[in-house]
Fold this sequence. Notes:
Elements: E1 7-11, E2 14-18, H1 25-28, E3 37-39, E4 45-49, E5 52-59, E6 62-65, H2 70-80, H3 87-97, E7 99-101, E8 107-109, H4 114-121, H5 132-142, H6 147-161, H7 188-192, H8 196-200, H9 207-219, H10 225-230, H11 233-240, H12 248-258, H13 269-278, H14 292-312
Antiparallel strand pairs: 1-2, 2-6, 3-4, 4-5, 5-6, 7-8
The protein binds a DNA duplex through helix 6, helix 9, helix 12 and helix 13.
Amino acid sequence: MGKNMEKIEQIGQNTRILGLEYFDPDRIFDCGQCFRFDRRPDGAWSGIALGRRLQIRAIPGGIEIADCTPERYRTLWRDYLGLSDDYRAIRAELAGLVEDRGPDGKDRACEDDPLRRAMEAGQGIRILRQPPFETLISFLISQNNNIGRIKKNIAALCRAYGDPLPPLGPSDPLDPPVVPGDYAFPIPERLAAAGADGLRGLGLGYRADYVRDAARAVADGTLNLSAVSGMDTADAARALCEIRGVGPKVAACVLLFGFGRSDAFPMDVWVKRLMAKYYPGDRDGRRFGRYAGIAQQYLFYYERYLADREGALH
DNA sequence: AAACAGGCCTAAA
DNA sequence: TTTAGGCCTGTT
């Protein structure tokens, strides 16, 4: 798969992965798919995932993960970071969608196709494989909300209801030191037991009830996330939409970012605008096929990038 | 100050 | 099947 050229080496406390293609932390952690990572002044990204702190920096030809063994990378971070997915093949397939046949029958690239431009601008974008429950709660909170507040809400949620990161086991001498103040994402049972006012107090607003209802449904088995992962994407979306506060957009985000469903196509306001502009008449992402969700990420990132540049001029 | 933010719910055509 | 308000709250 995409790791065919991957070379793993341990450098002191850290692990380097070299020979990577299409992996840019700045685009991966800042494209709105995750909410627990921050960019440090030195350019490294640091956040909590899978109950551990992950610190990652781009180096020429790859990345360096701090306080991490090669074993830890192979068993945990490779899949989480999307490095088990073959983006060369995915991009080739998406690029094939925007080629058409010239009169001579030969392939002729559509240089001005929006997806082609977006894929060029967003070379290093990847979709993380985040845990389903965390993704569900996070995108419930994301609705009618902005990134800054979403991140604050989720941090508050973890501080109030998440377990402190576990102390190091003797078998993991190279795991990151536990920093007081680092919390895992809360488990369903813990959130289900939270008082409604307790969640409100975190500043979630009306989403507090959604969060508690969703946690209850997962905790009591009304919503079986393992079963959802076995359904086809349309059925899975229907199942998720049974939860109050989960509509088509949130369901698609949960499927794309939390269940690895690359065909799920979140239609937020940006993507609606962009689709109307570039692909008038399309009501969904069907034209992008089984990697529609990844096409969506390229297009979304590109459109926001253009808006930011435009805004910066004024 | 009023509008807006990676929506969804409910009521009503 | 589609459309119009309202909704918590912090930011601009």
